[in-house]
Amino acid sequence: MTKKDIVVKIASESGVKQIDVKKVVQMTFDIIVDALAKGGKIELRNFGVFKTKSRKGRMGRNPRTGQQVPVEPKRVAIFKPGLVMKAKVK
C-alpha cells in the first residue's frame, strides 16, 4: 500500500477531498520524521512506537574486494508494533 492508496481510502470513506487528506497525511509523516530527527519518540496507542536507536561504529567488509572498511556510528529509526497491531497481523 502506498501513501496515495491511504489518501484515496481515507477520502472515499470520509467524504473529504483527496487534496485535503493528502495534506494531512503528509503533515503527519513530516511531524513523525522531524521528531525522530530530533531524537524524540512517537507513541501511538494500539498502533506502535517509533523511536531512534544508536548503532556503534564497527569494522565492515567490502564484499567486492574483501577489504575491511570502518562503518561510522549512526542513528537508525525503529518501529515496535503495539498489541492491537500484533494481534491483527497474527
Account of the protein in words:
The protein is α+β, with helices and mostly antiparallel strands. The protein has a single domain (3-89), classed as HU Protein, Chain A (Irregular), CATH 4.10.520.10. It has 3 helices and 5 strands, in the order ααβββββα. Strands 1-2-5 form a 3-stranded antiparallel beta sheet. Strands 3-4 form a two-stranded antiparallel ribbon. A hairpin with a 3-residue loop joins strand 1 and strand 2. The model has no long low-confidence stretch (mean pLDDT 94).
Give a quick precis of the structure.
Helices cover 43% and strands 30% of the residues. With 90 residues, it is of the alpha+beta class.
Tags for this entry?
3-stranded antiparallel sheet; elongated; two-stranded antiparallel ribbon; alpha+beta; 5 strands; 90 residues; 3 helices; HU Protein, Chain A
What's the topology here?
Layout: H1 3-14, H2 18-37, E1 42-44, E2 48-55, E3 58-61, E4 68-71, E5 74-81, H3 83-89
Antiparallel strand pairs: 1-2, 2-5, 3-4
Shape: elongated
Low-confidence stretches: none
Tell me the fraction of residues in β-strands, as a range.
25-35%
The average pLDDT is 94
